[in-house]
Each structure stands twice: as structure tokens, then as C-alpha cells.
Amino acid sequence: MSEQLETNDDPPSYAEAAQDSGPTDYVMQPMEMVLAGKSIYAETSSKAPLYELDYDIESPRCASIKIKLKRVDVVVGTNDDDEPSVRDRRRHVFTLERSWRTRDWDFRHPIMYDPLPSGCPRFLARAVPEQGLGHVGLKKARLRSAFTALPVNVTSKGNEFNLPEFAKNAKPVFKLRKGESRWEWEDSEGNDIAVEKELDDTHRLVVTASLPRTKVDTLVALWCSRRWESSMNRTENTQHGLDDIRTKLKLGHDAGVSGLRGWVI
Questions:
Q1: Using CA atoms, how far apart are residues 238 and 14, in angstroms rounded to an integer?
Q2: Closest CA to 68 of 225, 205, 227, 173
Q3: Using CA atoms, how far apart are residues 35 and 57, in angstroms rounded to an integer?
Q4: Half-sphere exposure of 145 (CA within 13 A, CB side)
Q5: Pairing relation of β-strands 202-207 and 211-212?
Q6: What is the pTM of this model?
Q7: DSSP readout, the chain?
Q8: How many whole angstroms separate alpha carbon 194 and alpha carbon 7?
Q9: Predicted confidence (pLDDT) per residue in 150-200, tens digit
Q10: 20 to 30 A Cα–Cα from 217, which one of 29, 30, 119, 263?
Q11: Please, are residues 240 and 225 in contact by the beta-carbon 8 Å criterion?
Q12: Contact yes or no for 185/200 (Cβ under 8 A)
């Protein structure tokens, strides 16, 4: 994918475009964002904060089902002495959510999750308030490492569990596919807009196209949703592995075998 975009007019910097006055459809210039704990900042000399989460989505202890994503706007005004002042204002733009169906409680597996209906996103980004591209979620392709970002109906009654579900016959918002070594994002028309990369043990989103601010907000929310889902998958796989070991140890104990001796784990 191309990481360069030629334009006739240079769009404003993120800090300039994020000022609180004026409309929300400013065009943002290409930038590199770094996810560090609960903060997302621009990879610049100032490392200006762009977004904040109220939980660390990469932490295995992040068991929340809702996570707020706030955009950090730069507000330019004047102080009491009529001198120019600059301050940050945090605006709640998305709530990241996860859906699940729990099985009946079982003493061997206190928490187990059944698969969701195919039309329901496991993770989604709920717009607060609903504006721009609205509520969105990532739908995984069946046979390859790819996702389609689709609008989500959060008040759907189209399934027996009353879970949010992808809007019927909706046009994709974004497309995401795994390249040779990284995830690559496209808009609905197939134009390259961003890539994900790992550098120095950090997760980065490199926006390679000029985009309206509301579209950048949605892109960041979906990126965080995918990172959160990936982290939860690792945690759940580890838990399932531990459950399997515990089961085998119990079977060994019942058979009179002490410890791990004689058992293939």
C-alpha cells in the first residue's frame, strides 16, 4: 500500500484542525499515532495527545465491556487578562463495547462464552452522540485475514438475543486486510488510507491519506476495537489452555498419578 499522498493544498496540522471552534469536518493531514497504555499520541517531537481511553485495552486485566474513547481537542482562547491561552478539552466521541452470550454456569468452567450470531459484531464502536459515520463494527471475512467495517444497528431486534447487529445491505465504511507483515486499511472505494505497524513494542496507526476529522475518529475507534479484540483473544486462549491443564491434572489425580508425571500436557 502507498504511504504517501500528493495534494495540491497542505491541510492544517492535527492540533490546528482540532480546535474546538468551527465545524467537525476539518481535513486532517497524514500522521502517525502511537498507542501507549490509555493514551494515543502523535509521533512528533511534542508527542501531543490525540485521544485517551479510560482502560488499557492491551492489558490482560481489561475485563470491562465498555471503554470510552475521548478525543483531545486543542481550544484556543483568551484568559482573564485577554491574553491568548491554549488548553486541552476532552470530548467523548465513541464507546467501545463487546457483546457476548454466556452459557449456563458450570463448576468446571465458571465463565464460558457461546458464539454470537453471524450478523452480530463481537466488538463495536458506538458513536457518542451518533454523528459522522455512526455506530460501526468489524465483520471478519470467513476464509482470510480480512475485515469489513460496517454500520451497526445498536437497537436491533432482529435476533433472539437483542444484541447489536450489522445493518442490512449496508455499504462498507472501511476495509481491513492483512498484508505480508502488517494490517492495511482502505476506504469504501478501495483507496489506501492507513497501515498498522509494530515498532519498539508499540502499536502504531499510520494514516497515509488526508481525511475528515470525523472519519479519523471512526478509524481510530475501529483500530482500538481490533487491538482490544486481539488482546482479549490472547487472554482467553491462555485461560482455555490453563483450564485444559487443570482438567488433565484432575484426571491424573483421580487416576492416582501425582503431578505432571506420565501425562502429556
A1: 39
A2: 225
A3: 10
A4: 11
A5: unpaired
A6: 0.75
A7: -------SSPPPPHHHHT-SSS-S-PEEPPEEEEEETTEEEESSSS--EEEEESS-TT-TT---SEEEEEEEEEEEEE-TTS-EEEEEEEEEEEEEEE--EEPPPBTTBSS-EEPPPTTS-SEEEEESSS-TT-SEEEEE-SSSSEEEEEEEETT--SSTT---EEPTTPPPSEEEEE-SSSEEEEETTS-EEEEEEEETTEEEEEE-S-EEHHHHHHHHHHHHHHHHHHHHHHHHHHHHHHHHHHHHHHHHHHTT--TTTT---
A8: 16
A9: 999 988 666 677 789 999 899 999 999 998 889 999 999 999 999 999 887
A10: 119
A11: no
A12: no
The three three-digit cell numbers of residue 50, written as one number: 490525540
Q: How many residues does the chain have?
A: 265
* C-beta contacts of 33-37 below 8 A and 24+ residues apart: 33/204, 33/205, 33/206, 33/207, 33/220, 34/202, 34/203, 34/204, 35/202, 35/203, 35/204, 35/205, 35/224, 35/227, 36/202
Q: What are phi and psi of 129, to 5 degrees?
A: -70, 170
For residue 55, give the C-alpha cell: 482502560
∠ CA 66-70-73 to the nearest 5 degrees? Answer: 175
Residue 3 CA to residue 193 CA, distance in Å, equals 8
Report the first-to-last Cα separation within the chain, whole angstroms.
43
Contact 152, 124 (CB under 8 A): yes
Average pLDDT over the chain reads 77
